[in-house]
Amino acid sequence: MRQDPLQSAVQPLHRTLHTQLQQWKNRAERKPLLIDGARQTGKTYLLQELLGSSFRQVLRIDFLESPEMIEAFAGSLNPSDLIDNIQLISGATFNAETDLLILDEIGECERAVTSLKYFAEKAPWMYVAASGSNIGLLNTFPVGKVEQYNLRPLSFREFLTAANQPALLQAFENQASSPAAHLKLMEMLTDYYFTGGMPEAVKVWFQLAEQNILERVQAVQRIHGDLIAGYQRDFGKYSGKVDASLIEGVFKAVPSQLSAVLDDSVKRFKFKHVHERKSRYQELESGISWLEKCRLILKNHPVEGRPRSPLAAYKRENRVKLFLMDVGLLNHMLGVSYKEIKKQGYEYKGYVAENFVQQELVALNIDPTYSWNDARAEIEFIASDQEGRIIPIEVKSGTRTRARSLQSYIQKCSPEKTIKLTGTQGSGPLETTHFVYPLYYAEHAIKAHIL
Description:
globular; 2 domains; 15% strand; Rossmann fold; seven-stranded mixed β-sheet; alpha/beta
């Protein structure tokens, strides 16, 4: 529990979600904010440092750090009573008209979760924000009474912003296609494959930009190792009725199964050999569901035949591809070194590029994602645009862009347009049907043709 004006000398780490939170702040009335996301994705930083900087004062309650604050919610859940109790126990002062109240790790206090309903109904003028890394595991949830967002690891755009290279960011924004821009953006993309988007790893990577590469790499590797160890500790702490060894088995199987595919598309998740006594989806479903609810894995559902909107109608839970929520953690769990990533360059392993595109899709709230397969042909992603048209997205990690699977999809499904993401500079602005984008412009391709 902290109370301060949030004056920070450190350059803020930009998060795209901050814009939406500012819009929330500027409304005359509002529901409480609820920020969901995996542990260490920067939820507290987003609320306290970024959003909080525009308030007179911030009062933050962390139920893990200060469990005694749970007593403030033991009695009446009327907002005015709660504020009185919070001030009494914390010794802090709070002005409901000018200050921001943050309820951090709210999943540790079930009655605090329930209180969000009463803040929404009885005090919509107050600025109340909550966050947690186990929101999906809650037994009770104030449906319709909160404005909820999922905070993911930094997207590639956010990674470029953190680099603090205005010319490079401008080239990205303008979708520059010059050889110089392509070279630099591919270098940054392969750096992103190594660091991933976990805020601490990104921050250290750029803070140590003047150090030798070995120091930078080792610093990021230590952070990745600590993050993985922390997640694994959480398996036992928060597993509840789910077998913690089952959760860990699925978590470890995701990278190993992804890496079993080098150049071809990622295959469906195989349930055999994940756990010594379980080999069917029904037996593993609780572990998969737990990891998805905690935002540690991402789902993709393969579709057969001729897909139509809504794609959710084709979803079968026992036919699923699983990706890790962060490409940097993926490479760390597989023991892939920075040197190996950079050496592979444009021809980098296809499953890493696919995991990257999956992350870019969910960062734009396309979640879950879908793919297509028919006989021997596979399309890594398909998505429905605003008019309900199904658009295939082929992912080619290298510079060889011939795509037999895409040709097969065109012949069988007759799409009005297609997207191919590759290690090349792309097809240019004159194309009107079959668009080719460099991988680092995945966000632009998605926004231009799907959203």
